[in-house]
Hints:
2 copies of one chain form a homodimer.
Chain A: H1 16-26, E1 35-36, H2 39-45, E2 48-53, H3 63-72, H4 76-79, E3 83-86, H5 90-102, E4 106-111, H6 116-123, E5 128-132, H7 136-150, E6 153-154, H8 161-177, E7 183-187, H9 192-201, E8 206-212, H10 217-224, H11 246-255, E9 258-262, H12 264-278, H13 284-295, E10 304-309
Parallel strand pairs in A: 2-10, 3-4, 3-6, 4-5, 7-8, 7-10, 8-9
Antiparallel strand pairs in A: 1-2
Helix pairs in contact in A: 1-3, 1-8, 3-5, 3-8, 5-6, 8-9, 9-11, 12-13
Amino acid sequence: MAASNKTGGVDVSITTNDLRQAHVLIRDGIHETAVMQSASLNQMTGASLFFKCEHLQKTGSFKARGALNAVRRLDAQQASKGVATHSSGNHGAALARAAALQGIVAYIVVPTNAPAVKKANIALHGAQIIECESTLAAREAALADVVERTGANYIPPYDDARIIAGQGTAALELIDAVAGLDAMVVPVGGGGLLAGSLIASAGQMQVFGAEPEMADDAYRSFTTGVRVTRHTPKTMADGLRTTLGEHNFVIIREQCQGILLVSEAEIGAAMLLVWSRLKQLIEPSSAVTLAAVLRYPEHFQQKRVGLILTGGNVSVTDFSPTP
Amino acid sequence: MAASNKTGGVDVSITTNDLRQAHVLIRDGIHETAVMQSASLNQMTGASLFFKCEHLQKTGSFKARGALNAVRRLDAQQASKGVATHSSGNHGAALARAAALQGIVAYIVVPTNAPAVKKANIALHGAQIIECESTLAAREAALADVVERTGANYIPPYDDARIIAGQGTAALELIDAVAGLDAMVVPVGGGGLLAGSLIASAGQMQVFGAEPEMADDAYRSFTTGVRVTRHTPKTMADGLRTTLGEHNFVIIREQCQGILLVSEAEIGAAMLLVWSRLKQLIEPSSAVTLAAVLRYPEHFQQKRVGLILTGGNVSVTDFSPTP
């Protein structure tokens, strides 16, 4: 199924075929991650849940997919200049790693207040880190400066056809691995993964976005039809604080079944359930999907439901085991 | 390879064939758990590490294997009386679940001070819980009482040929899954899993036990040749506080390459590495294996090394995510 072409002036003509091509292009550089089930979570929800484990992906999140697809779509001339982005999180690490894999340079603009664990994850892959103030204006200025200075190719974190197609390969693998899914639940921040999952679903199942109440721009954009571009999210789900992208909004508005809001308490409880039942260390952003299944049983009971666990980059050093 | 028969009056004639038979007997009631790898942990250790994920086993630990093997080896007459044990940990849950699977009753003697998470795991499977004081004498008295009253079959946690054969199937699966292992590292508490792993290895690789310095009875027994039967362990690795079993000691003394001691700090650091790199929520007892590989590189560098992650039953509710 193709998203409509050039709706509202935005080119969103991405097809399942684009996702298949992206999958072929990146396959040797990513993990085909496992799909897990839990008898006790199935019993608790009255559904058959299939968890796609993208926290086990290279760099610890699905972002490895889109970044590698974008980097590998550059021609040799472009690639020789390297790539650049601004990111305080998983996209920065994913782009750094994709560049390292291709043997090209990556410039990552990182706000000074970014979590140490995420900065370390970026540095691990040998990227050049450019620190700046944490405001969006400062980040964009620093990025513009490095792009002008080096000629590096800007690779946006989510609002980009190459990124959407790359992220969608996670849903593609889930659909290929689990026959007869009735529904899929996908976290929505910038919307790249949700848009890609909608295209992957090809209209064969209901696809829901799951979003924190404390970062509800996708919900408000979806219900009003007007994309929210400014908000000040305070959610613990740090991967979902970004604002819905323009391309992604067009695809989501046309094809998504709905955006399901969950509270911070529900996110925390669902994260602990995944930790204790699946024994998988996911970050809070990954937990919004199970939180949504628990809060809105009317959509999921007796159904076969795919949930994407998006990442596992959470700082664990504060934890003390209780003997 | 068979362990010697009746060494020192103890019958330890368990063969790899017994393990194969146990595997056939329990296979439909357990998970064949995944084997995971991590590029960054390989880089850090200079070895190729293969983690056998028994924390993803039914009931959250490898104990599900031995318990099911023991229960399924009862004849109909015996089974009709049910099973009993005393346990504050994973064996209790494993036996409760094995009994439930066979439709027989389980009596689990639990000290009043057992962690709530472990008590809940036992109750989950419908066992009859008998609370008692936490001393060994009180536990044994309560167990003797319930066995006399009900005729239930006592299923010991580790010092038992059926248990050893069942636990050894975890190592058997690991060896079948990973060609050309040079070494295996296995946590040692009561020694059932280590004894079973030694039999599974059939002398084809080096097998090490890994043990907390704070619970070093297996190390002292192994090095002196005299089994330590009294000690007061204080380790955070609560699954390894038990004392080495008599049968297990005979097998370990004859076949084990060595017992590697690790400190509490090393256990904690290794646990956080598994959490942050593998994204797997293991309990402290599982972390002694990686801790040993890090502390004793001379045994493992450039080798293909299998490590058994034994369980994931750790309380996570104290954790606060850092956004």
